[in-house]
Amino acid sequence: MNTYAWIILVTIVFSYILNLVSDLLNLSALKDNLPEEFNGIYDEESYQNSQKYTRVLTRFSFITDLFDLIVFLGFWFLGGFNYLDQYVRSFEFGPIQTGLLFIGILLFAGQIISIPFRLYRIFVIEEKFGFNKTTLKVFFTDLVKGMILGVILGGALISGILAFFTYAGPYAWAYAWAVTITFMLVIHYIAPAWIMPMFNKFTPLEEGELRDKIMSYAKSVNFPLQDLYIIDGSKRSTKANAFFTGMGKNKRIALFDTLVEKQTVPELVSVVAHEVGHFKLKHIFQGFMIGIIHTGITFYLLSIFLNHKELFDAFYMQDTSVYAGLIFFGMLFKPIEMILSIFMQLFSRKNEFEADRYAVDTAKEEPQALIGALKKLSRDNLSNLTPHPFYVFLHYSHPPVLTRIAAIRNHLPKN
Known about the structure:
There is one protein chain. This protein is mainly α. It has a domain at about 200-280 and about 355-410: Metalloproteases ("zincins"), catalytic domain (Zincin-like). It has helices at about 5-30, 45-75, 80-90, 95-130, 135-165, 170-195, 210-220, 255-260, 265-280, 285-305, 310-315, 320-330, 335-360, 370-380, 390-395, 400-410, and strands at about 200-205, 230, 240-245, 250-255. Strands 1-2-4-3 form a 4-stranded mixed β-sheet.
């Protein structure tokens, strides 16, 4: 094993141990007594269910994470990457087609291997706790649609990246960067109108009090909201959510039908206000700019390491190639990605606090409505109310609900 192999191996094992420790700490942080803030929201049975749900999911992750680690290390040290490479080379396609076949087989194999675990989580765990509404038909239809989209859209992007790094010379990284950013913008623009409706039905919110209140709120904060949509989240789960997506005339705020069923009008307005806050406070723009910079740095570093034969030797490869180099560099880059992900989680949690404050400041009719919305979402999704701080540090893109509620209360106008 050379230096590259050791860096990748240590990173993978360290990441596994780090996640294992954070999971164990998270289990130890579960509290038998319901936090006082949630008195009257949870009954004894629902709170105990939330504890059980966290335990079951965590123990399930022990199995899946260990399985993934064993499969990957086995494939690596048994020379699987080289066997696959020699197999795809035997068809004597060009470098782009060969690369697409190599990457495609790896991705397809990963999807197939994960199916039993995904089925168990949805049809056993989620079913047991009353969340699952997915049928086998919907599950496999989603799977096929996702694969088709991956082949068409992902295949087009990867083809371009492979072509640039194969033929474009020293500035290939810049061309690949530009094309990837353009691709991201196009997908971000067309997804609400063309891609997302392939999986869910978006129905314009009907006339009535809720629509009037939300449209009135949007006008009060000068947010160009053309329409509101209800998404049929109940097709797959009883869990509730809301999100903002798209850009330009394709901007959409979508509310899950399960959310609309369980929240009051002021609570739903506060949820929309939170999503509008992300837009008005430029969180979405900031995230996109960070993504652009991150992509550019990644491609530049890729151009440096792509031709290092030692990187290919680490995976027992007989031949070097751009397509295999993409995969191996991704593994080599993982330590940096781990650090960046922690900072991005911190950034995301900061943005959530700011969006909460924006909602409180602008949805003035009932400034405490967001607290009620967060409490109901936590109860209906069986959220862990007392996650361990280390687990939050590593994994949470949103602050824990009790922390969010405390911050909102501190920001509320004092009578």
